[in-house]
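Hello K.,

You asked for the raw outputs rather than the summary table, so here they are, unedited. I folded two proteins back to back in the same session to keep the settings identical. This is the first:
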Amino acid sequence: MARKHSKHDPYRDLDRDEDEVPAVAAHCWLCGRPMGKTTVLHHPVPKSRGGRDVVPMHPICQQTLVANFTNSELQRFGMDVEGLLANPAIRKFVDWVAKKDPDFNAPQARKLR
């Protein structure tokens, strides 16, 4: 039977570091609340527009962005959260959801096209 860890394992120290490092509490990129059980990795600049960066978001926050902006509008904002919060609909949503539980979810309105 093989050993679980070889005494000559070059990665042996990496396993110990994972146990000692405290978990960092992630916060939602849009609303700033702590993350709940469900996390969505959102592309602030859509992948179809060349975006590669991802940020953690609540599903309800991501659905709200998709419902209120087109891909080209999201591309213009990029990583600028303050620009998104300048939109009255997004500001109203963030103020409303700030009082909710991190795992709160509700149906979102459809895009007005």
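The second followed immediately with the same parameters:
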Amino acid sequence: MSLFLTRKADLTFEQFSDYWKNVHWPTVQTVPEVMENTIRYTQQHNIGGVPEGVTAAPFDGYAEAWFPNMEAVYKVIGSPKWAEVIAKDDENFLDRSKTLVLFSEEKVDYNA
């Protein structure tokens, strides 16, 4: 599951990035369903630097959460704690109207 994120308009990028890493992530870790069903979680914070002629993605960052199967995803996002804890905290730093979600399956894994 990839979550493409945009910060609230009243936050600087630095405030958004700090909150996401140092407040939101520890909050997410308090939800047992997340910790029991998630294989891997990463945060990708936008660093800019897009080459000339390339269109930059309109997001401040994206999160990747890896699950063994869709059943595990539904255990996490369907849990009462998801709404009570995670979604509620999202409102502190995200413009949720601009959040996009992509469920995907890895088909190629290249390790150089």
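The chain has a mean pLDDT of 96.

Happy to rerun anything if the numbers look odd on your end.

Regards,
P.
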